Amino acid sequence: MYEDSLSSKEKEVFEALKNVIDPELGVSLVDLGLIYSVEVDDQNVCHINWTLTTMGCPIIELLQDMIKKAALQVDGVKDCEAKLVYYPQWTPKMMSQVARLTLGIHL
Q1: Could you tell me what percent of the chain has a pLDDT over 90?
Q2: How far is CA 53 from CA 23, 58, 72, 88, in A?
Q3: How many of the other CB atoms lie within 10 Å of CB of 50?
Q4: What distance in Å separates the CA atoms of residue 20 and residue 74, rounded to the nearest whole number?
Q5: Which single residue of 39, 53, 65, 86 has CA 20 to 30 Å from 59?
Q6: Which tens digits make up the pLDDT trace of 23-74?
Q7: Is 36 in contact with 1 (CB distance < 8 Å)?
Q8: What is the mean pLDDT of the chain?
Q9: Of 18, 39, 38, which is closest to residue 29 (Cα–Cα)?
Q10: Which CATH code for domain 3-103?
């Protein structure tokens, strides 16, 4: 996801999502590369597309709730729709350098 193309409100949401930590991996969803898009519409509803590192993850609902909660903490965001998507398929190459170092992954 390209942070430079986001509006100021979308950047605020993206920054808030950096605080959403995957409880199993101890790394933010942003650094894991799981947040695919953030949009805030004219009604201040936030639309987030996100994915998982693996199919069948047992904490989907927890992650979804954490994403929504983080977005709703941004001033002016009235609602949040977090949509779980499976395309493009996630790969470790989508992780930030910070996530790779934290998890000991060398690509």
Answers
A1: 85
A2: 13, 12, 24, 12
A3: 22
A4: 13
A5: 39
A6: 999 999 999 999 999 999 999 999 999 999 988 888 999 999 999 999 999 9
A7: yes
A8: 93
A9: 18
A10: 3.30.300.130
